[in-house]
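Example record used in the benchmark description.
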Amino acid sequence: MSKLEKRLRRSRKTRSRIKTLEAYRLSVHRSSKHIYAQITSPQDNTVVAAASSLDPEIKKLITDKTKGKVDVARIVGESIAEKAKTAKIDKVAFDRSGFLYHGRVKALAEAAREKGLNF
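Model output (structure tokens):
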């Protein structure tokens, strides 16, 4: 099994467990350059809030002081938590999409928790 197949298998397993919770889902995707996060509704699977490292408002926050991709993931985590608060969402289920809870995924999750998102 390749790395991609293993990741997709893990993601299917966690998504099936999250669907039984009937909670909003904070799903994360990371590529080699960028990181994306979105909150989807449990009823109709529509995107309620989204943030990524490609958003213009987040690109403005990324300066020379950000030392790497982990810092950018932290900024994206703070942004998605603020957008969730404006949508009156305070509790979500964290879907790491099969990625290991380490590095950028962990930084995004911890930043979202610090801003008041519960999972």
